[in-house]
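Fold description:
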Amino acid sequence: MPELLRADGIGKRYGGVHALRNASLALSAGEAHALVGENGAGKSTLARIVAGSVRPDAGRILIDGKPASIRNPLEAQRLMFLLCSVETILPRSRRAGAGAGALTRRKQ
C-alpha cells in the first residue's frame, strides 16, 4: 500500500532537553499503529508534530509522497489527519509508557 504519511529525522528540543532525536514514522492506508514507550520517550511529541500542535526543529514530513509543512492543527485537518489519544490503565508493573496515540486520516 502507498504511504499516506512519512516523517523522517524529526527532532524537537525544549530548551536544553531533546524531546525527540531523529524520529521516524511511516503510515499506510489500512494499517493501525500505536506509539508505545517509556515516559519521556517522545511519543506525544511526535504525534503532536504530525497533528500540527507542535513545530519540529528538524526533519521532514511527506504526505502522499510530497513535502508538507504542518503549521497548526487546522492545516493537519486540511491534510486529513486527526490525533486521537488513548490513555490506558495498567497494573503497576506495566505503567511505564502506558499512553498510546493513533493518527486517523479523515475521509474526504
